[in-house]
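Hi there, hope your week has been kind to you so far. Do you reckon you could talk me through the fold, stretch by stretch? I've dropped the whole record in just underneath, so have a look:
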Amino acid sequence: MPKYINRLLKLPVTYLYVVMIIAYVIIDVLCNLVLIDVLKLASVSNEVVRGQGILKTFLYAIILGPFFETLLFQFIPIKLLSTYTFFKQRKLLMALISALIFALTHMYSLYYFILSFLMGTVFVFFFFIMEFKKKGTGLWHTIFLHVIINLMVFLNKYFI
């Protein structure tokens, strides 16, 4: 196992959350700089929550979205793929498939697809770490991380 993975596994859970949130911020800033400022891609937002009002947006983005997306795009694909010997030995391939499924459901624009693919890799990477570190907790920790990140986006959109 690579040294950086071993170092991550030794970190306390709280630190892992901080590392993943920092990863999100870096990905978000780089996507904004490269995709919007340099390549001039449109950053069209989610049609499901656009114009729904603050309460419905909160419900979809903070409560329902993280639960169902983590279940459907990280937990179930990883558990299904890991039943095959071919995929058991190829966790990176499983992670990329999971991230691709996550991104395909966020096809509001090319910008959102790319951002969602990168964030999907962060979520599935976190899922793997938490499953390895604390067996059976990957789903709930990943849901909570997803809630935190969506809450940051929500607060930024409505209050900052």
Notes: The chain is about 80% helix and 0% strand. The chain has one domain: 3-42+54-159. Residues 28 and 115 are 7 Å apart (CA to CA). The helical segments are 3-10, 13-38, 54-81, 85-88, 91-104, 110-133, 138-159.
